[in-house]
Specification:
- By secondary structure, the protein is mainly alpha-helical.
- It folds into two domains: about 230 residues, no CATH class; about 90 residues, no CATH class.
- Helix 11 runs antiparallel to helix 16.
């Protein structure tokens, strides 16, 4: 029997057959299952009543909201801050609820629940589009949707702004990912996706100004998994180009920040530095970051309101600052091998900045 001829060392290797890593069930079915399980887990909330804490300000004692969707109500929602917050779309959603359900609490809870289930699906769709990984994306979406730290946002009617703005936020990132995909192949449709992302981002800011950090999140996605920094020219010029690309998003975020600060300042919610020093704020922020991390792994002793401690013991502040510094340096060193860890860490640290207490609002 003749032996087969030896392959030339210069000839390219034959591509191996692709290894199937996809799920045995379709991605769309996974998305449906994520949404249905989320609905089932939070369904008991529909049997709850309104609370006397903030629900009255937003719904049960608000005559503008109880009147339903009207032209006068539309005008009122856009020009009147409520509970020291300017979020007209959130107020319009309450009006729509009253139009549909009146003051039956189950309907208002149901809206929060449906929004959160949709958000869980959006997280899955976003990560799947960005990474191409189905099961990992489903696992992260499940953690987002089912973690006990989200109970407050779903089961409390007054936290509608949380679930509503999150939906617009994730949809913004999905549209941004589509823009990047189309721009790489120089498709004119990329401009359409960019414009849609900008519009949806504006809607999110009008639901809750927490999304002011979203342009920075887009830059993090440019780092990983979109890998848009690497390319011709220096990294500095690459980052400059990406920042300039997002100027309209930064402009909207700045405008929303100003609106939020004015609304809170005029209602006396902003605590001045005479009552709480900058050092005390920084110390509380460092400890709070670590407490958030702790509750991610062990979500115990949860409450609606956490009174501000005013001053933490210096040892706790130094320990918290040291832990955050060590984690940051370690993940930065590992950025080439595990870029997703640095991206996730910076997402966590950055998106908490508006509510971490450096600008202190209220007594929490």
């Amino acid at each position: 029997m003749r032996k087969p001829a030896a392959k030339s060392k210069s000839s390219p290797p034959k591509p191996s057959a692709p290894v199937s890593t996809g799920p045995r069930i379709p991605a769309w079915l996974l998305a449906v299952l994520l949404g249905l399980v989320t609905l089932a887990l939070y369904w008991p909330a529909t049997r709850h009543d309104f609370l006397t804490y903030d629900d009255d300000v937003y719904v049960t004692a608000n005559s503008h909201v109880q009147a339903g969707l009207t032209l006068a109500g539309l005008k009122w929602a856009f020009i009147t801050p409520v509970n020291s917050n300017w979020h007209p779309l959130t107020m319009l959603s309450y009006m729509l609820d009253c139009q549909m359900y009146g003051l039956n609490p189950w309907g208002h809870h149901l809206t929060n629940l449906v929004l959160h289930a949709v958000n869980t699906v959006l997280v899955f769709l976003l990560l799947r589009r960005l990474t191409g990984s189905v099961w990992r994306s489903a696992a992260v979406a499940a953690l987002f949707g089912w973690h006990p730290l989200h109970v407050e946002s779903v089961a409390w009617v007054a936290e509608r702004k949380d679930v509503l703005s999150a939906g617009f936020g994730f949809l913004t990132l999905i549209l941004y990912a589509r823009y990047v995909e189309q721009s790489k192949i120089r498709n004119p449709k990329s401009k359409i996706y960019y414009g849609l992302a900008l519009i949806v981002f504006a809607l999110g800011l009008m639901s809750k100004s927490m999304l002011v950090t979203w342009p920075f999140v887009m830059l993090l996605l440019d780092f990983w998994p979109l890998n848009r920094v690497a390319g011709p020219g220096s990294r500095v010029s690459g980052w400059r180009r990406l920042v300039l690309e997002k100027i309209p998003f930064f402009a909207l975020a700045a405008a929303a920040s100003v609106m939020a600060f004015i609304a809170q300042k005029n209602n006396g919610a902003v605590v001045n530095f005479q009552n709480l020093s900058f050092g005390a704020r920084v110390g509380n922020a460092l400890v709070s970051y670590c407490r958030y991390l702790g509750k991610l792994f062990w979500p115990a002793k949860l409450a609606v309101f956490y009174p501000h401690p005013r001053h933490w013991p210096l040892a706790e502040v130094l320990l918290a600052g040291g832990l955050l510094a060590v984690l940051s340096v370690f993940l930065f060193i590992r950025r080439r091998r595990h870029p997703f860890l640095l991206m996730g860490w910076l997402w966590f640290v950055g998106t908490l900045v508006p509510v971490i207490g450096l600008v202190q609002i209220g007594g929490q």
